[in-house]
């Protein structure tokens, strides 16, 4: 159906920096042009389905998304594709109590179907270590903690972005499509198993850069635009596999 697929992270990749919480309008234009050129553009993020699908539809990308770090997808409808979500729901309240005022509930949790997000006051490293310690001391097995740089996420062991990506590929018959992926953090590492070409923006975590096929010179959204610009140039030149 689609000759090309672009799986793109959102925060830190389409935003101007890893601290920003708004989409670079230049990046949005490139996303739209890629879509018009025959790409299926899939937003892949730790955000909830309502946030991601709404963003995708308003950008004119069709609304196919991988949400909650791979636990939930929206292709033809919303689907939970990871098991073990019940334990995550039980764990988040206990972890928040354990962390006291240092850890805070995310407003998006009321809309989440599996993954739960925890915000923090102060240090990201301290937040991740506190949540990981809480899970261990409180005896929650089968639940892991990962940080996106914007929140610490609780999700089932064995659940990651690639799980949701493969669910989309199987559902929409994309096995023969050329697959590009781009991200900025270690939560994007599982993309490696899906991508024909994995791209890390210039300020990405070291672990992602080490396994990427391409590392852009520019950071965050400027890195995305650098990559997208080169891709579009190859398409305009008539390359069959840009």
Please describe what this structure looks like.
- The chain is about 35% helix and about 20% strand.
- Helix 1 runs parallel beside helix 7 (about 220-235) and helix 3 (about 85-100) crosses helix 4.
- The chain has seven helices and twelve strands.
- By secondary structure, the protein is an alpha/beta fold.
- The chain folds into two domains: about 5-80 and about 160-235, Rossmann fold, CATH 3.40.50.1000; about 85-155, Hypothetical Protein Ta0175, Chain: A, domain 2, CATH 3.90.1070.10.
- The chain has an eight-stranded mixed sheet, sandwiched between helices.
- It is globular.
- A hairpin with a 4-residue loop joins strand 8 and strand 9 (about 150-155).
What order do the helices and strands come in, and which of them pair?
Layout (H helix, E strand, L loop, with lengths): L3 E5 L16 H12 L2 E6 L4 H10 L6 E3 L4 E3 L3 E3 L4 H15 L3 E3 L10 E5 L3 H14 L5 E5 L4 E5 L4 H12 L5 E6 L13 E4 L5 H6 L2 E2 L4 H17 L6
Parallel strand pairs: 1-2, 1-10, 2-3, 10-11, 11-12
Antiparallel strand pairs: 3-4, 4-5, 6-7, 7-9, 8-9
Helix pairs in contact: 1-7, 3-4
């Amino acid at each position: 159906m689609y000759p090309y697929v672009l799986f793109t992270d959102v925060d830190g990749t389409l935003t101007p920096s890893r601290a920003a919480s708004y989409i670079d309008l230049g990046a949005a234009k490139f996303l739209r042009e890629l879509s018009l050129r025959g790409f299926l553009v899939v937003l892949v993020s730790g955000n909830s389905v309502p946030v991601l699908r709404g963003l995708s539809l308003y950008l004119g990308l069709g609304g196919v998304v991988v949400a909650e770090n791979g636990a939930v997808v929206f292709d033809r409808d919303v689907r939970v594709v990871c098991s073990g979500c019940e334990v995550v729901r039980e764990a988040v309240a206990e972890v928040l109590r354990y962390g006291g005022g240092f850890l805070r509930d995310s407003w998006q949790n009321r809309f989440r179907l599996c993954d739960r997000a925890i915000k923090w006051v102060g240090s990201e490293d301290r937040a991740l270590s506190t949540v990981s310690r809480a899970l261990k001391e409180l005896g929650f097995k089968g639940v892991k903690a990962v940080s996106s740089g914007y929140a610490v996420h609780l999700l089932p062991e064995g659940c990651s972005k690639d799980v949701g990506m493969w669910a989309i590929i199987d559902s929409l018959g994309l096995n023969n499509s050329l697959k590009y992926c781009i991200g900025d953090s270690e939560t994007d590492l599982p993309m490696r198993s899906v991508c024909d070409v994995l791209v890390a923006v210039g300020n990405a975590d070291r672990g992602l850069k080490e396994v990427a096929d391409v590392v852009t010179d520019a950071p965050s959204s400027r890195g995305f635009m650098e990559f997208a610009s080169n891709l579009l140039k190859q398409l305009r030149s008539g390359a069959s596999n840009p």
